[in-house]
Amino acid sequence: MTRPDNDGQEGERLLFRDLMASVGYFLLNWAGLEQELFQTLTTLRSKRLVADGPLPLGMKARMEIWREFVRESPELRAYAKLAVQVERQALSLREIRNHIVHGLRGVVTYVDGEPYISCSINDEITPRTIEYKYSDLEHFTQGIDACRRALINPQNFNYLVELR
Predict the structure, then answer these.
(1) pTM, to two decimals
(2) What is the pLDDT of residue 6?
(3) Which domain holds residue 24?
(4) For residue 120, which of 14, 103, 107, 160 is within the disulfide window of CB 3.0 to 4.6 Å?
């Protein structure tokens, strides 16, 4: 696979650094999603729109609070089904994030196809390996950003990630 050049034409072959930049961009966007979720819930709590007290630590519990807020909010209630999609997508992408952060094993760039990263999955009886191509990482990053923007306003959710 090659990078498009400035004219949109086929350019240089994707290199190790391109793939690693894509991993970094994915993780940076993930951090932005977590920060936005925390900030949104903190703001809602300060306005007494969600229960007072410390926020739960886990992403799943925090997404549930946000989804319930959307469902119960008179202004946002119409987006309750969309909030379920946002929550589902964020939690699916969290699983991929965990594969990368906790299981990254290698990078393959010199292949006839698309470069990819290889991750170990050790959450089953038989450990396995999963590969994420460069285009997968770009796709997932768009999905993360859509979830982040939806936390600000559910109407902003405009990118659905179909996971394998």
Answers:
(1) 0.89
(2) 45
(3) 13-156
(4) 103
